[in-house]
Write a structure and sequence with these properties.
The chain contains 15 helices and 27 strands. It is α+β, with helices and mostly antiparallel strands and 756 residues long. Bound molecules: dioxothiomolybdenum(VI) ion.
Length: 756
């Protein structure tokens, strides 16, 4: 048994519970629904010009001609930025000094590396003039045939997958185990190119004042963006002020500053005026990242009793010709099922595409739909119910590392979800259930998992002499509700009511809140806030307990409790003093402290940290037309301490809807001849609308995991996709008896024998 880690880091004098755990509505909700929330492109400093990108219509080759004169001659056009006249940069956009740095297309030459690559920027007095000017550029190209798809070039083993994960991981002898397994499956699954499609496109308003730069732009990582821009323009990060109070979705594509955003800054430098640049929807399909396609071969072995003996998960994926991001889709197979032999491996090709990036649950989403389908096929090969099979095989400890993790929570999720869904009434065989209208009904299951990550962050806490509080950290609210949940943590950390706390966030001059990614933002920024609050309260307690005029004199630092703007003696709550009185007597207008957060390496060396869940889905399939309607999805999740149940449910729903979308809707169709995305718009790239969304239920186990961080916070942003996508696919099999292994599942995949 691994040793228990005690909660020694939790400050004893702070009591939690009055704000944390409350199902508050979003504090910025009214601003949003009344249109008063100011998104990046809503800003318009005096004298702002409009910039419009011209993008490449070929996927490989070079630009041989741009009619710059025609564009410049158009009324209202101020300038045209091409690789001939763009302002110099202090850093090569193709340099890469760390894995979080992506190579950018900043008009460095005439080369075209993918369709929709920026090739010029037209800057004009009006959006219309800039748009018309861009159309007049009439580019000519020297085109080469594009390399498209997973078989377009020679494959290789990438040096790492995701951000720094090993491409191959192995435990036990998978080949030997497969050879002696009495039940085996060997199946290949394919997932398509997907695009982030945030409602708010990438946008920037950039204004230079000498060598100081002021920017409005959506960002999931203000400090990283600031650092990258500082490097590219050769100025110090303090000279750059970024405002990003609201994001209309990000899903990973706004985690790092993108090429088009930097082009907006370059355009502003070129013309010496503020510039606004907003991507058109179709321009999002290229320079700002996507989810790479995968082809995944899963070989699974089991013994006669339905116990797993081997899992071999091999993934082929694609990256761009000029940069490295490899979708880590096989990694999910080392975390979920307790097979004595497990091997995961990745290979990749380079194709003429924009560089893929993290897209909500990168690797976990793609890997999950394949693994959960394959586990279902293995259960079927063993003649077992898919839940019984998973209950027999889920991991008690993380299989690949042997570290303990919250397997009890996963067992609870299976039990709760199955009960709520009514799983015990599921017939084992496929094509057994029909509804009143004669539609085929199927029930499917998928296991959900996502790592509980933490990055580094900092926060600044202030208590003022009027008894109010201030908490500052540059966090990012992409719509998930961060500014509400983090304010709840701030209020508890300061021992104040929410209304008494001013929460400042969303700008780069505040302490770094870490990247809003990896479902780690609440844990990362939240722990910095918690620690800052504890630090400032500790200073207040020092002032009071060391002052013989205070009723708390002599109570000692660990002997007080902070609540409702007062400090109380722990052993005698009748003796207390308000923050205002403590500061007033000390002659201080305010007192401040900083707090930091980071993952605890000791805990991480002992425990494997994940959120878990189990998702149950029902679909109805028209036996004549093959049309699929998901009707019911029930997910049970254990994701640590729930800071705000309303927001967490909403996050889980968002993920579950994305899971439905993964199984049934999303698919960027790439033209083999041109390398262009044929459906680069929201009409033909299908994302679910309300009518596509089934009845959803997200049950939350209140899980106490003291090891992830002192508040026990895990993430909920991405886990909902995992499990759900596979559950829907498995339900389609159960309804129809047809196992579709290429996603999304389409009507023509379900050409069925005539219904009886
Ligand atoms: Mo996410 S893909 O970690 O924004």
């Amino acid at each position: 048994m691994a040793p228990e880690i005690t909660l020694a880091r939790a400050p004893l004098h702070v009591r939690h519970g009055s704000n944390i755990g409350q199902p508050l509505t979003r504090r910025d909700g009214v601003l949003k629904v009344t249109g008063r929330a100011r998104y990046a492109a809503d800003n318009h400093p005096a004298g702002t010009l409009y910039a419009v990108l011209a993008v490449s219509s070929i996927a490989r080759g070079r630009v041989t001609f741009l009619d710059v004169q025609a564009a410049k001659g158009h009324p209202g056009v101020v300038d045209v930025m091409t690789h001939d006249n763009r302002p110099p940069l202090a850093e090569d956009p193709d340099a890469k000094t760390n894995p979080f740095m992506f190579r950018l297309d900043l008009l460095q030459n005439d080369q075209v590396r993918y369709a929709n690559q920026p090739i010029a920027v037209v800057i004009a007095e009006t959006l219309e003039a800039a748009t018309e000017g861009a159309a007049l550029l009439s580019p000519q190209y020297e085109a080469q045939p594009p390399r498209v798809g997973l078989d377009a070039s020679e494959s290789f083993v990438p040096p790492s997958v995701g951000i720094g994960n090993p491409p191959r991981v192995q435990r036990g002898d998978v080949e030997a185990a497969l050879a002696t397994s009495s039940r085996r499956i060997d199946a290949t699954y394919e997932t398509p190119v997907q695009y982030h499609n945030a409602m708010e496109p990438h946008a920037i308003v950039a204004a230079w004042d000498g060598d100081a730069l002021s920017i409005d732009t959506p960002s999931q990582g203000l400090a990283l963006a600031q650092g990258r821009i500082a490097g590219l323009f050769g100025i110090s990060p303090e000279k750059i002020h970024i405002r990003s109070p609201f994001l209309g979705g990000g899903f990973g594509s706004k985690g790092l500053i993108s090429g088009p955003q930097v082009l907006g800054i370059m355009a502003a430098r070129l013309v010496g005026r503020p510039v606004k640049l907003v991507l058109r929807r179709e321009q999002m399909y290229g320079p700002v990242g996507h989810r790479a396609p995968t082809r995944q071969r899963l070989r699974i072995g089991a013994d006669r009793d339905g116990r797993l003996t081997a899992i071999d998960h091999h993934v082929k994926t694609a990256s761009s010709t000029f940069d490295d991001f490899f979708e880590p889709a096989a990694d999910i197979s080392h975390t979920l099922y307790a097979s004595p032999a497990i091997a995961t491996s990745h290979e990749a090709v380079r194709i003429d595409t924009g560089t893929p990036m993290f897209m909500r649950a990168p690797g976990e989403a793609t890997g999950s739909i394949a693994l959960e389908s394959a586990i279902d096929e293995a259960a079927q090969a063993c003649g077992m119910d898919p839940l019984a099979f998973r209950l027999k095989n889920y991991a008690e400890v993380e299989p690949i590392s042997g570290k303990p993790f919250s397997s009890k929570a996963l067992r609870d999720c299976y039990a709760q979800g199955a009960e709520r869904f009514g799983w015990s009434r599921r017939p084992l065989a496929a094509r057994q259930m029909r509804d009143e209208a004669g539609f085929l009904v199927g029930w499917g299951l998928g296991t959900a998992t996502f790592p509980a990550l933490m990055f580094q962050a900092e926060a600044r806490a202030v208590v003022r002499s009027d008894g109010s509080g201030l908490m500052e950290t540059g966090a990012h609210d992409m719509g998930q509700g961060a500014s509400t949940a983090l304010a709840q943590i701030a209020a508890d950390g300061l021992g104040l009511e929410l209304e008494q706390v001013e929460f400042r966030t969303g700008t780069s001059d505040l302490p770094d809140a870490g990247i809003a990614g990896g479902s780690a933002h609440t844990a990362t920024a939240g722990m910095a806030i918690h620690n800052a609050g504890a630090a400032v309260i500790a200073k207040l307690a020092d002032l009071a307990t060391g002052d013989e005029r205070s009723p708390l004199f002599g109570a000692g630092n660990a002997g007080v409790v902070a609540r409702g703007g007062r400090l109380f003696r722990r052993d005698d709550e009748g003796r207390s003093e308000s923050y205002a009185a403590i500061l007033g007597r000390a002659g201080l207008t305010e007192i401040e402290a900083r707090g930091k957060s980071a993952a605890d390496p000791t805990a991480q060396s002992i425990y494997a940290m994940y959120a878990h869940g189990a998702v149950f889905a029902e679909v109805r399939v028209d036996p004549d037309l093959g049309q699929i309607r998901p009707t019911r999805v029930v997910g049970a999740f254990a994701a640590g301490r729930v800071i705000n149940p309303r927001l967490v449910r909403s996050q889980l729903f968002g993920g579950m809807i994305w899971g439905v979308s993964f199984a049934l809707h999303e698919h960027a169709v790439i033209d083999r001849r041109s390398g262009r995305t044929l459906n680069a718009n929201l009409a033909e790239y299908h994302v679910p609308v309300n009518a596509d969304v089934p009845s959803l239920e997200a049950l939350m186990s209140d899980e106490h995991d003291p090891h992830v961080n002192a508040l026990g916070i895990k993430g909920v942003g991405e886990i909902g996709i995992t499990g759900t996508a596979g559950a829907v696919a498995n339900a389609v099999w159960h309804a129809t008896g047809i196992r579709v292994r290429r996603f999304p599942i389409r009507i023509d995949d379900l050409a069925m024998p005539a219904s009886d």
